[in-house]
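User: I'm curious what two different proteins look like when written out as structure tokens. Can you demonstrate?

Assistant: Sure. I'll show them one after the other, since each token string lines up with its own sequence. Here's the first protein:
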Amino acid sequence: MGDRSGGEPMTAPHDLIVRNGVVVTPGGSVQLDVAVREGRISALLEPGTAADAADELDATGLHIIPGGVDTHTHIAWPYDGTTTVDDWYTATRAAALGGTTTVIDFVPPDETVTLPERCGARVEEADADAVVDFGFHPILTPRDARAPENIGKVIADGFTSFKMYTTYEDRRVDDGAAWKLMRIISDYGGLPGFHAENHEILEAALRDQVESRHLTVEDYPESRPGLAEAEAIQMVSLYASRLGTPVYIFHVSGSEALSAVRVARRQGVRVFAETCTHYLCLDDTVFRGDDAWRYVISPPIRKTADRDDLWSAVLDGTVVSVGSDHCAYAESAKRAWPQDHRLIPAGAPGIEARTPMLWTEAARRGLSHAEFVAVSTERAARTLGLYPRKGRVQVGADADLVLWDAERAWDASMFLSASPETFSLYRGRSGVGLPRHVLVRGELVVRDATFVGRRGSGRFLRRDTQHA
């Protein structure tokens, strides 16, 4: 019995002790009391250990897990001269209610200002309103000719991972630009990342659809075949091998993309594959319903076999993280063009649903609580330069704690708090497992399933260049 902090004096006061919960660790689950001081975990105590604290929180019947890390969000995202219908307060409030305490968003491209300026502006935007901690992947495009000279500077400022597109005419990097930018990023120890789809394959597939007049939402998956993902992943993996750099692949959608990732990993390339909640929880039957417009997402949701293969990749570590790819378009913007998928903005909200959906589906597939924590937070923290500050319940880590009620029922109508103007991808779905209390750096932001956080309390995360 006693203190497991490795030397923490028992007479030192703590700000808070979370009592009577079951802590989920990489090795399993164990009943421990968790002490917090100055925003960090200050001690792990045997249950009932006497210790001074200004406050206590009862976690009887609850699991204590590290706050979720969402690796892929688009909050208050600019598109077509407007923005999505959320903002940094509403989106991060929704994240907290779902059990996510860290989001990694993006710095939009803008060739009219320098890369450091647009990174700084995005931090200021989030800093004013966010209620969970946040970091950013800057987006690089060939149009920003000055970006290469500033990559080292923004990496030093904590923007250590980047996103490039191998498709979309207004932002794509061709093979030569990809090689150049990867080389510069790797020289400074950063992590190059890609939306990886071969542009020419997508153009050919869409051209066939236009000629045959097959452009309804049901036709959408065929416009972005898995082969396009696989080819682009092979290309950037070859570059990564030659440069000796890791590479991050955003939103891997199915088996063809996974096959390319697996081949590269067998060859010793450090390919970090991310997938998204919707690819793990849905299949292409969604494109045959009256509300198929909801599911226009890039890359597309694929077949049941692809979904099952993604879960296999989660279990064996090929998939290192799960993002929501949250992009809160208004329902009116999504549903206006059912006869021409080209006109529907690709993306959907999902920041609040990510963790509950993962918990429910993981339990259905027999994953342990430790495996759930690995994929919802720990591996992401390791890969993106946040570990050991984030992603674990351990002395010295930020006290990002989710007190999880494994018996609390939910239905997908609950997951709309980012904006009443948007919609749920998971309509009609239900499950069990939701947060009861959520702490960000020791501060309660959700108490008894009700948001109690402070606008602007989230902090920018300067990430390091360790990519495990």
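Here's a second, unrelated protein for contrast:
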Amino acid sequence: MKGVPLKDILGKEAVECLAHNLSLVYPEFAFVDFVERALDNLEPLGIMDRGKRFAVVMQEFLPKPYEAAVEYILASLTPPLKETKDNGLQVFFYLPHITFIAEHGLSPDMNAGNDPFGISMKAQYELTKRFTAEFSIRPFLIEQQDRTLQQLTQWLDDPDPHVRRLCSEGTRPRLPWAKRIPAFIKDPTPALPILEALKDDTSLYVRRSVANHLGDIAKDHPDLAFQICENWLEDASKDRKWLIRHALRHPAKKENSKALELRKLAK
């Protein structure tokens, strides 16, 4: 995909593959009409808007209510990722799937009046193993913070690092490309137990996410971030020291004396 615009990952080939996968599990799926509708005036759209477009078309062509559509979506998934790196950009194939969950997964009105939270969490648990649900989990944290944090807490010991990473990456206050979480920008403390639980995770993929989350906190609450790093320096392993240095790289670049001091101690 080198030299190919990112948006083209969700082009004609992806639409046809998506339609094929859904038609395998939902025999009534209108393959030709779906592809035509999804590709209509697609060229001007960037990748995030293409994800939204395909999610809208999925909603039109999959059965109602929402829960029934999600079960077909889950049945259509390819096997989970085996690695946490070098997976390429093809994983963006699942951007429409998580967008579908983000757009429709909170409304009982879309689910025949029934609470869709459970099936939405099930979907994000499976999708994050194949792409990431860090974008789709955020509306749930914004609208149902306590309930969603409780679910994420249950996933902290999951054997799959993609799931554990979702817990820290999805709760980042200022996640790039994603909707910000105003409550966590104002007060990041509700998510701190997640970072505490994952700071010594066996996977660098997860620890890097913890560092980036802490870096987000440092942008709005530097003293809190510095205090956390200071606490974590006690009996810190080599891996945790790397995490601390990575978390504080932005304030260090701005010559913040405390950040520079802590990074020096973490060498």
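A detail about the second structure: The longest helix spans residues 204-220.
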